[in-house]
Write a structure and sequence with these properties.
Elements: H1 2-33, E1 36-37, E2 49-50, H2 57-74, H3 84-105, H4 110-126, E3 133-137, E4 140-142, H5 145-165, H6 172-190, H7 194-216, H8 227-246, H9 260-284, H10 297-302, H11 308-331, H12 336-361
Antiparallel strand pairs: 1-2, 3-4
Helix pairs in contact: 1-2, 1-7, 2-7, 3-4, 3-8, 4-5, 5-8, 5-9, 6-7, 6-8, 8-9, 9-11, 9-12, 11-12
Length: 362
Amino acid sequence: MILNYAYIIIAFAISLIFSLIGTPLVVKLCNTRGLLDLPNARKVHKHGIPRLGGILFMPSLSVGVLITLLIMYQGISKGFNIGISNVMMAVGAIMIYLIGLFDDLKGLKATHKFIIQTIAALIFPLCNLIINNLHGLFGIHEIPIGVGYPLTVFAILLIVNAMNLIDGIDGLASGLACLILGSFAYLYYELNAYLFCLISISLAGATLAFFFFNMYGKVGRLKTFMGDSGSLFLGYVIAYLAIKYQMSQEPLGFPYREESLLVSFTLVFIPCIDVIRVALWRKFNGKAMFAPDKTHLHHRIMQMGLDMHQTLAVIITLFVSICFINYGLYVGGLETTYIIGIDIAIYSLFIWVVGKLNVQLN
């Protein structure tokens, strides 16, 4: 038990240190080459900021996991099974990472990015990594492949773009990602799924290092944004971890756990519900789906007069509250369908209150 904890700490520390050392070099390169994120209608910053801070997420994750695995194979190695789904996930993650990097460097149309994202998402069901059971949601349990495949692809695209679009203020995407990844690290550890635990904790280490530069770095010195290479990669890995965790079909998944779908849903709820709300608002108001605006959750809260750090605190508090509420409701015996309905009601009420406050204050 103690040895397993040591491996987790090692993976986290390696990834954290790798990113802490590498980020200043990336920032220097961006400043030298003019690779800056400039203000526009969607963004709240006023100065050009180096935009490749997230470029280290994938190498930091890889180094942290690989070195820890090498150490583990010299000690205990049971519990690891690097199968086809893991290999295919790596292929998809590289595709997402490269398309994000290309967008950061050269710029890319939203439709082109979406096509590549869809191809990467299709990798999941192709290797039988799918949403195959709704665990009682709306009274539904096992679902056919014909339903599970498109549902899985939709879920991946939703999570990937949710993490990308919520990256609008300092520390928000990285802060939420750290909490989500830390939670998955614990959950996979409890399942003795050590490889997925290491993936989660290693990426958490890299993301935490970025969080400090993004939140507390000075403009013109060490402040940086993660860019699409970082946010899309984060979204893809989180989508993988969420879908893998809820699977209940041995040997492709884990033993049936009634709460597994609810857990995955809870951890990605805040970024995903906000993307859905904004998309529906744009649709009903005759606006383009990918048009830049300031209607996301963090924009709405900042319009009340809060600064970025205060807005971050509000959203993190909302996220943590939803997690504890869902846990309490589940332990109390409430069905998943009602819990999800309550989550949507809480979020809707929160948005309504924010809207009312905006009207009164402005």
